[in-house]
Amino acid sequence: MAFAGNVDELALLQSVRLKGQVGSSVLAEHLGVSAASGQAAYDALIAQGKALESEGTISLTEKGLTELNDQLDAERVSIDEDSILDVLEAFLPLDEEFSALVARADADSLADLDRRASNVFDDLSAFVPRLSRYQDLFSSALTKVQAGELKWMSETGIDSYATVWVEIRQELCEAAGKTQN
Questions:
Q1: Which of 29, 132, 147, 152 could form a disulfide with 125 if both were Cys (CB 3.0 to 4.6 A apart)?
Q2: pTM of the entire predicted model
Q3: Neighbouring-strand partners of residue 53
Q4: Quick one: which of 93, 102, 75, 4 has its CA closest to 46?
């Protein structure tokens, strides 16, 4: 559903929840919208009582979390359970490999893993279209890692490859009705 700044409200609410506290510029970049659209969405969440602002960042209020959970429940109804479980099953070995790769800071292996994981993320995006934005975030982070900007592999506070990976893992587990270990 279009929200202020022509931002998808579910994607917006979920982004705020996953990031915990987030500023408008990070939201705009994460959602792939202009800075003005990111700011409009940020302001609208505050005005509607769905988010609370503190020191230039927002976090969801109970009202925001309730709205998010209602929208996620509605989304899950449209997802084929068996198919999304197949996607999760294909993802889990890659997730183990990714964890080891990041622990070793092995940037050389990241491109190969990204190539293999892209098929899983294509399937995920087919079942949950709002998650297709993550492929752009992965591509952007990988390009920066390959250019020698290694902070884009695992630094927190930015949409580094690891940050995006953790978010997509959570999204996939939730879509499949599973909790993370």
A1: 132
A2: 0.90
A3: 58
A4: 4
